[in-house]
Amino acid sequence: MTNTTAAPAPDRPDTSTLDRHDAPAPDRQDLARLIALMTGDEKHAPAAHSTLDALWVLYHRVLRVTPDTVDGPGRDRFLLSKGHGPMAYYAVLAAHGFFGEELLPGFGAYDSPLGHHPDRLRVPGAEIGSGSLGHGLPLAVGTVLGLRAQGVTDPRVWVLIGDAELDEGSNHEAIAHAGPAGLEQLHTLVIDNASATHGWPGGIASRFASAGWAAVTVDGRDHEALYEAFTTPHPGRPLAVVARVEPKN
Question: Which residues are 80's β-sheet partners?
Answer without folding.
Answer: 160
